[in-house]
Amino acid sequence: MILTTTNSIEGFKIIDYLGIVTGVAMNETKLSMGFSVSKYYKSVSDSVDITKETAFQKLQENALKLEANAIVGIKVEIELANNNYAMVSVTGTAVKVVE
Q1: How far is CA 11 from CA 8, 20, 47, 98, in A?
Q2: pLDDT tens digits for range 16-73
Q3: Residue 27: what pLDDT?
Q4: What is the per-residue burial (b if ≥16 Cβ within 10 Å, else e) of 13-25?
Q5: CA triplet 14, 22, 92: central angle to 5 degrees?
Q6: Mind listing the domains of the chain with CATH numbers?
């Protein structure tokens, strides 16, 4: 599966636009300030990375359901909710491409 933030893929032609797909994930582990600031920020970074990977997996699964082989125009939104949970939303357009 080709993933890109651009609206086209160099060397490929989009032959069908299949629809908007999303992947949303929330880290269920609450982050705590019960340790040093540097460890807190590393914990936040690790939490966001794991959550982002899960969101991208869900994005691709949803695109595959539409029989897409690429997703263009990907936008990523990352939020650290006020309850210290990391949430990531990934949105793009599922397409079929050929070389």
Answers
A1: 9, 22, 35, 9
A2: 999 999 999 988 665 555 555 566 566 777 878 889 999 999 999 999 999 999 999 9
A3: 82
A4: eeeeebeebebeb
A5: 30
A6: 2-98 (3.30.110.70)
